[in-house]
Amino acid sequence: MPTNLYGPNDNFDLETSHVLPALIRKFHLAKLASIGDWPAIEQDEAQYGLIPADFKESFFAIAHASGEPVPHSRLIHNPYISLWGTGSPRREFLHVDDLADACVHLINLDDTAFGRLISENPRPIVNIGSGDDLTIRELPL
Asked: pTM, whole model, 2 decimals?
């Protein structure tokens, strides 16, 4: 039973993604906004999904004039991001490559070792993770 996974080809849609992909995308957009890279922001939106209007308004704070470069004096030098919720939900995170390694390890167990693993559990479920969770607020950002 894997925990909250993250990694390549994740869902980065700001409306439907899990917490880590949403944070990664928001930080990426903040970096792009801080340097005024509007074409890259538009490319991000085309590739990863709509940037909600309320997020755009609070995040960018300036209107992008139809394809024209934004003057340097109007760039956001200290962009900010808003995080959703209270930060109190607890989560455990696992990179998809670590899950893949664990699955390969389980597949390669001999019958005796696999039988011991399954017989020690009341249900044949293997927990793949560190067993350590943290609040969203505790994430080392």
From this structure: 0.70
